[in-house]
Amino acid sequence: VLSRCPAGALALLLGTLLWAPWRALHGAPLAELSGDQDFQLFLHKNLEFTRKIKGDVAALQRVVCDTFQLCKEEELLLVRQDLGIGQAPLEQCHSRTFRAEACFSQIRDGLRAYHGSLAAVLELLPGHAGLVETLQLDAANLSSNIQQQMEDLGLATVTYPTEGPGPLPTFSSHFHHQVGGFFILANFQRFLETAYRALRHLARL
After folding, report:
1. Which positions, given as ranges, span the membrane (predicted)?
2. pTM over 0.85
3. CA distance 138 to 144
């Protein structure tokens, strides 16, 4: 089920949070795990995995730019307001009261959301189905990795209420579909940047 925020003030707020400079996280309850070899291995492996996914998203962004001449987000903001495509939240990974279970849960849920929303990109770029399907598989695998690690660490699974509509929006035109694909990829890239920084922070504790 796709978990996205509606367009408007909330989406803008979440976008601002995700672009904000990374702040030092205090009170992380993982001091007892920081020296755990299995936990460190998990973090470093999934940092590399996240970097790989970011590269694939960037490759698809270049395809959208080259194919549809949709390259600059600021030129499409007015169209975005009509689409109802928001950013999967990660505010628990920014919070100064950072809790691993809350951050991990939001990363896991966001990856599941983008796995679903990439279906719109798959429809838009049938000639690049292999790359889109690989990206979907990688998002699902990283989500599963995080879920398994949470269980292994005995971290509580946190489920946040879904904000906004669940299914993908119905695009009223092919152009809206193109812009929708553009913003799904742009939002996913921002999401991955924040998730990467959170994992890197945990690896340095």
Report:
1. none
2. no
3. 10
